[in-house]
Structure formats: C-alpha cells, structure tokens
Amino acid sequence: MIRRRKRGLVPSTRKSAPRRRLPKIVNHPNPLVSIIIPAMNERTRLPAVLREAGRVHPCSETIVVANGSTDSTAEIAAAIGAKVLRYAEPLGHDVGRRIGAEAARGEVLLFIDADMIIPAARLRPFVNAVLSGMDVALNGYSGPVNRTDAHPVVIAKHTLNAWLARPDLQGASLTAVPHALSRRAVLAIGSKSLEVPPLAHTVAIVKGLDVRIADMVDVGRMNPVRKPFGGQDPLTSLVVGDHLEAIHWLIQERGQRGGYRDLGRLRSKVR
C-alpha cells in the first residue's frame, strides 16, 4: 500500500521574501524644524516619505498625524521613530495640518503629504527660505494652465491671487505641498485657519506677512489618481469651496468689493 503524504508536512523549498527594513529617524530634543505629515492608510509609501523627511534638517522633529487609518500606518510611523498623533476617526481634509502645527515645537513648520515621496533635496529650499526670513514659503506649482478646459481648482487659485493683488503668485497656494511657515506666521494667522489652506493663504497676505514662492515641485505628476465619484474628483468641490470661504473672509475684512474701489458711483441716488 502506498501512503500519500499529508499536505502541509512537506518542507517548502520556496524562499520567503526578505522583510523590508524600515528606515530610522531621530527627533531632535530641541527642534528648529517641525515636519508635519497627515496620513491615512499610507503604510506602503510612508517609510519612504519618512526617510526623506528625516534627511531635511539635522535639527528637526517629524510628526505624523495618523487619522482614520485601518492599516498599520501609525505603527509603522512609530517604529521608524516619528512622533505619532493617533485618531481613530478621519479628521477631514487638511485638519491634520492644524493638529500637527499645534503639536509642533520648531520655528519652521514644513508640511508634506504621506502619499507623495518627495526627495529631501526638494524639501530643503522651503525650510531654508523660512530660515532666511520668509514667513510663508509656497510651492510654485500652478497646475496645468495651457489647456482650454482649465480645471476648476486651477481657476480658483489664480482668481484668489488676482483678488489679493498678488498676480506674481499665479496659481501658487497653501493648498499645494510642500510648503513651509514660520512660527510667527502660524501665530499671526491662527492654527485653525490651516484647516482651510486658501483661507490661511489669504489671511497671511492681508496681514502683511512675507508670502513668496520658494521653489517649484511638480506635485501634479506625483498626486495619486483618485477614483471619481459621480463622474468628478471628490476633492474638486471641497477645494473650490475652500477658495470661496477665503473670498468670503476677504469680503468681510475689506468690504463687499474686497478692497477694490467703486470709483465714486452714487448708488444711493438710484431708486
């Protein structure tokens, strides 16, 4: 009688894939630079993002705001050495920036996203610009502008800067990472405004802070493609609404014409 071998008892000859070694970062006890990274379900990209963050400045801390993650995002961030702020529920778009800013101890706050691997060499210009005296160091990415069907977000960014009398900024905005702020800027505009990046952008300019483009990183090529909902990018209406909120604040601050003159129209004489 031939006995069949029981399955599972034969030693496997297949080699198991080597475990990926996680990078290690060290947070400085007295950081000059705070690197803030909101993250939700980014376990795959996060190690590389943190590796580059740890190379930006020798006197830095890295803060990961892990919100609404159902994977091991928070655990991986902690294992690598980042300071991790955990929230079980999703905080909502850009709220993580405010949370991270309020926990930051550095004089320069650099904001990046967990879904984009940007080399440290491309992040340093934003930090160096603030260290040299700039209050808000913007990414000069303006979005695709040479198209007949311009994206609503691109139109919103250019429109807001035109209304703020800053056409030099074109489509640059705090909506796009990477960007960096001085602690002075965060105190002046208020950390809560960071939840609505175009509002923070507007308040900074109206308050007379030094807001300029520090460098250009083409994040349009890096942004993960999002699945459309109802035929539209789910973030388009949110970001356009953020710009409308910024314009609403500007009108409240400067009057119904947003600071632009009416050239002596006698509207009260017309019945």
User: How many structural domains?
Assistant: 2
Specify the overall morphology. globular
Physical arrangement of strands within the biggest beta sheet:
3-2-1-4-6-5-7
Count of extended strands? 7
Supply Rg.
23 Å
- Give average pLDDT, whole number: 90
User: What oligomeric state do these chains adopt?
Assistant: single chain
Helix content: 25-40%
Protein name: Glycosyltransferase 2-like domain-containing protein
Domain Glycosyltransferase 2-like: 34-138
Region (Disordered): 1-22
Commentary on this structure:
This is Glycosyltransferase 2-like domain-containing protein. InterPro entries: Glyco_trans_2-like (IPR001173), Glycosyltransferase_2 (IPR050256), Nucleotide-diphossugar_trans (IPR029044). It comes from Paenibacillus aceti. Residues 1-22 are annotated as: Disordered. Residues 34-138 form the Glycosyltransferase 2-like domain. The protein is α/β, with parallel strands linked by helices and 271 residues long. The protein folds into two domains: 23-117, Alpha-Beta Complex (Spore Coat Polysaccharide Biosynthesis Protein SpsA, Chain A); 138-220 and 237-257, no CATH class. The chain is 31% helix and 14% strand. It has helices spanning 46-53, 73-80, 95-103, 120-131, 152-163, 183-189, 197-206, 236-254; strands at 33-39, 60-67, 83-87, 108-111, 136-139, 179-182, 211-215. Strands 3-2-1-4-6-5-7 form a seven-stranded mixed β-sheet, with helices on both faces. Helix 1 links the parallel strand 1 and strand 2. Helix 5 runs parallel beside helix 8 and helix 7 (197-206) runs parallel beside helix 8. The longest helix has 19 residues, at 236-254. The radius of gyration is 23 Å and the shape is globular.
